[in-house]
């Protein structure tokens, strides 16, 4: 949405020769796009670091298997996070 607004303001700025006060709307929209991009990247990074309860339980099972003397190949199978888990976890916070 902000990208479309940015294009519309840029077109109006060129085609309608907007006054400098209204041209600042173009800059403000651009800053809003950058802030949104960095905020979403930061939230995605936080979501990728926070373990989910299911993954924590699976990791505890792997540690228990290591202590019980399970074969090395079986004990090293760590649960893998998928994009779906990361996205779903982001909506919980």
Please characterize this protein's 3D structure.
- α2 (20-49) crosses α5 (83-92).
- The chain is 78% helix and 0% strand.
- The model has no long low-confidence stretch (mean pLDDT 74).
- The radius of gyration is 24 Å and the shape is rod-shaped.
- It is built from five helices and no strands.
- With 93 residues, it is an all-alpha fold.
List the helices and strands and how they pair.
Elements lengths: L1 H14 L4 H30 L3 H15 L4 H4 L7 H10 L1
Helix pairs in contact: 1-2, 2-5
* CA gyration radius, whole angstroms: 24 Å
User: Number of DSSP helices?
Assistant: 5
Q: Calculate the terminal CA-CA distance, rounded to whole Å.
A: 24 Å
Q: Got a strand count?
A: 0
Taken from the alpha-carbon principal axes, the silhouette is rod-shaped
Mean pLDDT over the residues: 74
- Strand coverage percent: under 5%
Estimate the helix proportion, in percent.
over 70%
* Uncertain parts: none
Q: From the structure provided, what is the oligomeric state, counting identical versus distinct chains?
A: single chain
Order of helices and strands: HHHHH
What is this structure, in a nutshell?
The chain is mostly helical and 93 residues long. It contains 5 helices and no strands. Helix 1 packs antiparallel against helix 2 and helix 2 packs across helix 5.
Core attributes:
single chain; 0% strand; 93 residues; mainly alpha; 5 helices; 78% helix
